[in-house]
Design brief:
The complex is a heterodimer of chains A (717) and B (243).
Chain A lengths: L6 H40 L7 E6 L3 H15 L4 E8 L2 E7 L7 H10 L6 E6 L4 E5 L3 H12 L4 E7 L2 E6 L5 H12 L2 E7 L10 H22 L3 E4 H4 L3 H15 L2 E6 L10 E4 L18 E9 L2 E8 L7 E8 L2 E12 L1 H9 L6 H16 L1 H4 L10 H16 L3 H24 L14 E5 L7 E5 H23 L2 H16 L3 H14 L8 E7 L4 H12 L4 E6 L2 E4 L1 H42 L4 H23 L8 H17 L1 H4 L4 H9 L4 H12 L4 H9 L4
Antiparallel strand pairs in A: 1-3, 1-4, 2-3, 5-7, 5-20, 6-7, 8-18, 8-19, 9-18, 10-13, 10-15, 11-12, 11-14, 12-13, 14-15, 16-17
Chain B lengths: L2 E10 L2 E11 L4 E5 L6 H8 L7 E6 L2 E2 L5 H10 E4 L11 H11 L4 H14 L15 H14 L4 E5 L7 H17 L3 E5 L3 H7 L2 E6 L2 E6 L1 H7 L3 H11 L1
Parallel strand pairs in B: 3-8, 3-9, 6-7, 7-8
Antiparallel strand pairs in B: 1-2, 1-4, 4-5, 9-10
Helix pairs in contact in B: 3-4, 3-5, 4-5, 5-6, 8-9
Classes of the chains: A alpha+beta (717), B alpha/beta (243).
């Protein structure tokens, strides 16, 4: 305290305080300036709070036409809809949409979202509804549950589904906390648990085996349901059919097209699942024992047994019209001894014959059309297979629109286009996933690259699936969809045309391709058809181990249990942006605070710390003073400016400041060298330390706040 | 007695700088402190001015023990003891006049009086016309004379001069010695001069004190010390004198 008797040291304390105040002002000002600039950008992007309800993203090159079409589509819905062009960001042109009050209802909002699909270059949308909350990261079935429950909460005006999230529009801002708490109770304190039952059934090629498998799997499923009933809040599997149902339908479609192979083994010959057999196929001569099978030979893989017969899939070649042939074993890549007589029945051949008048149109066609209808109806669910990113909303909405169109029976061409788009998108994506790293190289619609993926069920067949096959599937689905539409319209002419198309296009599919598709479907669904899956909503206190144990006790078998948090409740998009801006502001303030403290230490205080060592102050005292000074400077600027950096709170700022100060003290002689002989001269003249600092040391030091303040009080300028 | 150094000891780590040095300086007396480099002469001067603390013994200035002085007393002591350094120690950013004024003004002397005393001091060292120049614009001899003027302006009772000509070009040594000789002849202030200039000591000093290895080995009037040559150091200086 004796130091403070000297004016210089009092002013020094004043300079430290002034540094803190100015530094905090500088840090906060810089942060606020940036905040204002970013806020201006946000304003141009999103408009005023509550001004717009929706932002539609379209590809930049579609901006003009998209704007016109968006206007037309939405004004058609309600003349009071207002569409305003927004800024272009990262290749996306944005349109801000203001909806009239009568459209701020759940159905209307979802209809608006569905219409956006038809905007050229459409690339997604973001709800700006205010006041609102959003629940993101939802499992598809839970999303609908959350939407329903959220819509029934007091203060909720609408709960709009979109992708894997639900946007909850509130009646008034004052409901926000209450609704957020209710939603958190629903999702954040719960978890979605998926139970898979491996080995639920084989990949059965025909109806009878499938039914047997389904029966066994069904009892296991019921056992699991019973076991988990006490633990589960709700079963989401039952709420809405998951993607498995749609894939089952798709799988059924493919299975109905596949040639059925039944092999009657020779006496004392046993055929096991996985065995491979060689048949003559369309080759001019039967397979020769000891030789490798030729390209025209058929290779059949045994996938099941019924009675004394083995059931198989053709994994190489095409059966054509079907026949009875001798089956030889395939042993180490070569044709082995005869194993039995194979009967091949091709439903496609029968269908084609029936349509051309050589056979009855009959039951198979009807069944095929039925399967196609089911497939189409469930295509909406297919999209649930896709990762729930916002980018996938387009596919989903397209699918929903398709489902609506099918139910309403309108727009045949739009239906077909949508159906094909969804199917192709989903399958392409799942192919990419199934193919794994490096498996797919640009397998777009026009690409020539191939996808290689192991056959998931058998695991022994290296399946190569190229874009042409995808196109064939697309063609088949197209014709089937046409057939469905024709059936729905009851137009005989269209029905006939559709059936002819089906006959032509179905005829283009080969048996080995169908087998590849079947295995692909099984594989992408993780054993779809073979692995029953159940999805439950449980309390977050229930662990996966609890569930596994319950299943083991009740069903006597192991299950794969995957648990994940049900979802996350977020503020609205605008609130998120505001929070983000606040984070940026605090971070900028933090960075500026560190810079200010560092600059002050180097420019002002390094000089003083260096001089103190020459004024008989012990080095340890000078270092401690430096550390304290740094802590006070950074801590002060930090707290006054409201700064915040990740992993650096107020205590961290004090510590960081102390470290900065200590380093400054240790390096003071290098950062701001002082002339020792001048200090000694001052001492020899009887000057006080303060006088020496003011008249000799500080004027010779680096320019800073201290030298500025000191200049006014100096005797010798 | 103006200054009484009584058995002062000082060590720098293991090295003994002063080993029981005793000497006196009377008011107006000029004492030449001589000895080989590193014998402790400069350390003794710094101890007298309390720029360095010593380990044992005592130094009395005007009968007051310097070692017991508090900070304020030390500053008052320093204002009564002018110190001239070997390397001038001028404040580079200040003019010649401001360098001389610095101790006066900050020591509380009214500005007018300080200015008068500073100019008078500069006149005594023959630098009356150079007061607006900066140290960097001066020769070594002129710089040392400014340093002497700065010490003189305080009107000290004792001047400590630490080899004031050692850093000078031989051509410039004379002008500084002349100034010092003039000061000595006025007998206005006591002077303790560390020097190797034997002829200067013979001509100006009232007494010579010879030091070697931190102790005083001989002292007395210069003629007597260099004539009797009781020490190796005295013999060396005597040879220099003869040559």
């Amino acid at each position: 305290m004796s130091l403070l008797r000297e004016p210089f040291w009092r002013e020094y304390v004043f300079v430290v305080a002034l540094t803190i105040i100015l530094g905090a002002g500088c840090a906060a000002g810089t942060a606020r300036a940036l905040d204002a600039a970013l806020g201006e950008a946000a304003h141009s992007l999103l408009g005023e709070a509550g001004q717009y309800d929706l932002i539609v993203h379209v590809r930049q090159d579609y901006r003009e036409v998209a704007g016109r079409e968006l206007q037309r589509l939405l004004v058609d819905l309600d003349p009071e809809v207002r569409v305003v062009p927004g800024v272009i960001v990262a290749g996306n042109a944005n349109f801000l949409v203001e909806l009239p009050d009568n459209l701020l209802k759940q159905d209307a909002l979802e209809d608006v979202a569905a219409r956006l699909e038809d905007v050229p270059g459409f690339n997604g949308y973001t709800w700006l509804l205010e006041p609102s909350l959003s629940v993101s990261g939802l499992q598809p079935a839970l999303r609908d549950l959350v939407a329903r429950e959220a819509a029934s909460l007091p203060g909720v005006r609408a709960a709009v589904r979109g992708g894997s999230s639900v946007t909850v529009l509130l009646e008034h801002i004052e409901y926000r906390e209450q609704v957020a708490a209710a939603l958190r109770e629903l999702v954040e304190r719960r978890q979605v648990v998926e139970v898979r039952l491996p080995g639920g059934g084989a990949s059965a090629p025909d109806q009878a085996t499938t039914e047997a498998t389904d029966e066994a799997a069904g009892s296991a499923v019921e056992a699991v349901r019973a076991a988990l009933a006490p633990l589960a809040i709700a079963e989401l599997t039952a709420e809405e059919p998951g993607p498995g149902s749609s894939l089952t339908a798709l799988r059924g479609l493919l299975a109905s097209l596949a040639t059925r192979v039944r092999v009657q083994p020779l006496p004392e010959t046993s055929l096991q699942i996985g065995d491979r057999l060689v048949l003559q196929g369309s080759a001019p001569s039967p397979p020769g024992p000891g030789e490798p099978p030729g390209p025209e030979h058929l290779i059949v893989e045994v996938v099941g047994r019924r009675g004394g017969e083995a059931l198989g899939w053709i994994v190489q070649g095409d059966a054509g019209q079907g026949t009875v042939q001798t089956a030889f074993r395939l042993v180490n890549g070569a044709v082995g001894p005869p194993a039995g007589q194979a009967v091949l029945e091709s439903p496609r051949w029968a269908l084609a014959q029936g349509l051309t008048g050589d056979g009855p149109v009959g039951q198979e066609l009807e069944q095929l059309a039925q399967i196609a209808r089911e497939t189409a109806d469930r295509l909406g669910d297919l999209t649930a297979l896709v990762a729930p990113e916002a980018a996938q909303e387009a596919i989903e909405q397209r699918a929903e629109r398709l489902a609506r169109a099918l139910r309403a029976g309108d727009g045949a061409s739009a239906v077909r286009e949508t159906l094909l788009g969804v199917a192709l998108s989903v399958l392409t994506r799942k192919l990419q996933e199934a193919g794994g790293a490096g498996a797919m190289d640009g397998a777009g619609a026009g690409g020539n690259a191939t996808v290689a993926g192991g056959a998931p069920t058998g695991g022994r067949l290296a399946l190569r699936f190229d874009v042409e096959k995808l196109e064939q599937l697309r063609q088949s689905l197209m014709s089937l969809a046409d057939a469905v539409e024709a059936l729905k319209d009851g137009a005989a002419g269209e029905l006939l045309a559709g059936l002819v198309d089906v006959q032509q296009l179905v005829g283009n599919l080969r048996d080995d391709e169908i087998t590849g598709l079947l295995r692909l479907v099984d594989g992408v669904a993780g054993g779809e058809g073979a692995e029953p899956r159940l999805v439950f909503l449980v309390d977050d206190r229930v662990t996966a181990a609890d569930i596994e144990e319950a299943i083991r006790r009740a069903a006597g078998r192991d299950a794969v249990v995957v648990a994940a948090r049900a979802g996350v409740v977020n503020p609205s998009a605008r609130s998120l942006l505001i929070e983000l801006l606040a984070d940026v502001r605090r971070s900028i303030a933090g960075i500026v605070a560190v810079l200010v403290a560092g600059a002050a230490l180097v420019l002002d205080h390094a000089t003083v710390l260096a001089a103190l060592r020459r004024l008989e102050v012990p080095p340890a005292t000078a270092n401690a003073l430096g550390a304290g000074l740094g802590a006070v400077l950074l801590g002060g600027v930090w707290s006054l400016s409201g700064a915040e950096l990740p992993f650096l709170g107020p205590a961290g700022a004090l510590a960081a400041g102390a470290a900065l100060g200590l380093v400054t003290a240790l390096l003071a002689d290098r950062l701001s060298p002082v002339r020792v002989e001048e200090i000694v001269a001052g001492q020899s003249l009887g000057l006080t330390n303060g006088q020496i600092m003011r008249e000799i040391v500080v004027p010779a030091g680096r320019p800073g706040l201290l030298s500025l303040v000191n200049r006014w009080r100096r005797e010798f300028r | 007695m103006l200054l009484h150094v009584d058995g002062v000891h000082k060590r720098y780590g293991r090295r003994v700088a002063l080993a029981g040095v005793s000497l006196t300086v009377a008011p107006g007396e000029t004492v030449a402190l001589m000895g080989p480099s590193g014998c402790g002469k400069s350390t003794l001067l710094r101890c007298i001015n309390r720029l360095t603390r010593w380990d044992a013994g005592e130094i009395y200035f005007d009968s007051a023990p310097v070692g017991a002085m508090g900070p304020d007393e030390v500053r008052r002591l320093r204002r009564q003891i002018g110190f001239v350094f070997q390397h001038f120690h001028l404040i580079e950013r200040l003019t010649v006049l401001d360098n001389v004024l610095l101790g006066l003004v900050l020591g509380g002397v009214p500005k007018e009086e300080a200015l008068e005393r500073a100019r008078a001091a500069l006149a005594r060292v023959h630098l009356a016309g150079e007061e607006r120049l900066y140290p960097a614009q001066l020769s070594g001899g002129q710089r040392q004379r400014v340093a002497i003027a700065r010490a003189l302006a305080l009107e000290p009772r004792l001047m400590l001069l630490d080899e004031p000509t050692a850093a000078l070009d031989p051509i410039l040594v004379g002008e500084v010695l002349d100034v010092m000789e003039e000061l000595a002849r006025t007998r206005s202030t006591g002077m303790l001069v560390v020097t190797h200039e034997v002829r200067f000591a013979m001509r100006v000093a009232d007494r010579v004190v010879l030091m070697d290895a931190g102790t005083v080995v001989d002292e007395g009037p210069p003629e007597e010390v260099f004539r009797r040559c009781r020490s190796r150091i005295a013999q060396s200086y005597a040879r220099l004198l003869v040559s």
